[in-house]
């Protein structure tokens, strides 16, 4: 362990290059791994001391307390790294800018005038603002998650806080890009009905934008960014205007919560975040390695990579302690935090729609959980699978079906018919119990009882496969649907 | 109470104007006051429930627990306000920018090119970056303070964290201003010895800058900002280069801690922050109301006002619960947070040296405490004054002088001689006890025992008087010393 950490640190310093963001990100990722895997075992005791501890429900007794909320350590480490990486990322500007400022023809300008006006031309303040707004958003999420773990805040109180946290992001987006239009699949516009429908939507969005503009004075205009369109016919755009911002802040609410509800077995929270990170990175690399890539797309995905790589580093550091048998719990803090990392990257990287493709497993889990989340079916406090001490395996956990769930009962029989759920019936064939609606339970329903670590690995592998499939889809079916792809390998 | 809050909210909405930052700041200040004074009494119970509670040592028994760390509520409220205020502050840019983007001759530019390049000319990204870096710095400070309260982090661990937190600030400063020179008082340069001394320093700093440049490739050049110099002779500048950044991050370490050690009686932490805020605001107003003010100075002090006014609002909301008899404690979180607010404002507002004048009471308290802080004299765990149940008054608290404090003993006799301390001696005239070295105790030494609230008020009034005096000094003695003043009322 210690050797690995030392090696990581050494390699990090070997990799540390100014002027090469990817090298720097990789170095910081290694440092992050070394730091978290060094800190977490050492800080555990002090977490337990102040009462941040929990018992693992899926282990054979005697079970003693293990530290809870260790995700905070990871999150703080990540933030420190993110702050420290800034000078490296902007290094060439910092240098070149000052080199210029020493030019003779400039210097007198500097000495006479207030300087920031000049700097605007030299230093990419907008990029720095993006970076800072992202960091700000993440830090607020950490604080929110931490308070939630500590005080468990009421649902209706904490619901909108991520949206507030994402406000700086939206402002930066509004200022720098304000691209609020989505591309309409060609097969829709091809058909007259689809055509008219799209026109109807366009006018609706336009009208609502007019209204908003009238009230707030802010114009939510769309400015088409550079789709390096392969086909001569430009794609049909649908301008969502203000609704696009609503979508983005909804994303900042959904992403953290979707990761938070796909949890309950050792290593799954961290594991799924790592897999997501890998998927993001693969997608970024597709762009960064593309020979004919526009500056805009390159910058976006470089930024994404700079955020993701250190995140992978720190998460791997945590994973080795959180994986079966877990020696630490990560807490909601971690789930919120990692969810927000992906939301931030999606928004700043301008692939907030592609992002949803990568979140498909989380989305499926959410949709599957809806009946219990919105109390169409009774929802027990914990929905994690049931641990059986005798054979040391995990079994689906069940919810009791009480009276007065008419809709729920119908739903259950449908789900049961499609084998999407296990039910127990009494003698007169009324459903009494049903397996809880999480894809963790569903996996157990389909593949039968298994050990906790196997279960976790199966889900993670599944997630990875879906993710890779989605990337492929995005860049094969996507172009066919939309008549263009912003990832051009020169081939097209 | 509720009426006052309602009135505040109503007035806030009445004041809320786009395009007038001061109005907006005032409105947000009122909102802040309403929110904190609404939240704090309601959240107290849940703080106590999770064990964030403490006993007031200076009250007549029976003393029951009151919530601790309520500063966090204030801090979070402030951060939310700070994020929400951004669109208002930048409103005119947001609008005008988009108005421009609709111009015909521009639009095709937009449609063809990646947009952020154009935006750099229109939107003050550097100002937004300043704002965000400030917010980021504050948020990290909250997190640090909170962890410190929770886990009490070791001194050597937490010491440098504020410096990390202030890194984004320094980067923004480096990019936007990089003014690293200080003005040398004329009376020094007048005298030949002073002259040579300054030249020696100049060359020293220049050399060290060369070294840093050689290592890091970063040039720490000075570019003189606009002192609207009244006298024809430009002031002599001393370029501190890299050391100026060291000074600023030292400031971000000192300010929070200096406020943190001037504490121990009800209302003092919040009270001194409010007084500091008022002093800052007076200073800002001097500039903002000045007829012939440079754009640079105006922007700086407007930014300062925008940060300070909401801070005053939320702090007043907390003060009414923290003042004698305290119903809540604020925790180190508050001290760190408020300290960092002033550091941030000082750095972003480019009066990081004037800032020290305003912190004089805290600095005096620090210097006075040094012997105990650095263990030249024994330091008990708590140095707060001793409460006497019989007469309900506060008395100076004493430290025991053990053997082996040679230097300390000498120091004590000197301090005792100047009546800067109370000592108790044994029969052979050896000092056995001494009043703890805080200006709180010193006040009691000089003015005799008094009630807790009177003590707090006296210290606060003293601080306010010193502050006002300092502002006066800054703009009267300052010009005389430095041969110029950046605050020009046209008179000069």
TrEMBL record, chains A, B:
Superkingdom as given in the UniProt entry: Eukaryota
Membrane topology listed for this record: Multi-pass membrane protein
Any one Gene Ontology cellular component term annotated for this protein: endoplasmic reticulum membrane
EC number(s) from the headed UniProt entry: 2.7.8.15
Any GO molecular function: UDP-N-acetylglucosamine-dolichyl-phosphate N-acetylglucosaminephosphotransferase activity
Protein's UniProt keywords contain Metal-binding: yes
Pathway: Protein modification; protein glycosylation
GO-annotated biological processes: dolichol-linked oligosaccharide biosynthetic process
Keyword tags: Endoplasmic reticulum, Glycosyltransferase, Magnesium, Membrane, Metal-binding, Transferase, Transmembrane, Transmembrane helix
CDD domains: GT_GPT_euk
Transferase as UniProt keyword: yes
Top EC class for this record: transferase
Cofactor list: Mg(2+)
Catalytic reaction(s) noted: a di-trans,poly-cis-dolichyl phosphate + UDP-N-acetyl-alpha-D-glucosamine = an N-acetyl-alpha-D-glucosaminyl-diphospho-di-trans,poly-cis-dolichol + UMP
Annotated TM spans: 69-91, 128-147, 159-175, 242-263, 270-290, 302-321, 333-351, 404-423, 454-472
Cellular localization per UniProt: Endoplasmic reticulum membrane
Family: Belongs to the glycosyltransferase 4 family.
Function: UDP-N-acetylglucosamine--dolichyl-phosphate N-acetylglucosaminephosphotransferase that operates in the biosynthetic pathway of dolichol-linked oligosaccharides, the glycan precursors employed in protein asparagine (N)-glycosylation. The assembly of dolichol-linked oligosaccharides begins on the cytosolic side of the endoplasmic reticulum membrane and finishes in its lumen. The sequential addition of sugars to dolichol pyrophosphate produces dolichol-linked oligosaccharides containing fourteen sugars, including two GlcNAcs, nine mannoses and three glucoses.
Name the UniProt record assigns to this protein: UDP-N-acetylglucosamine--dolichyl-phosphate N-acetylglucosaminephosphotransferase
Species: Australozyma saopauloensis
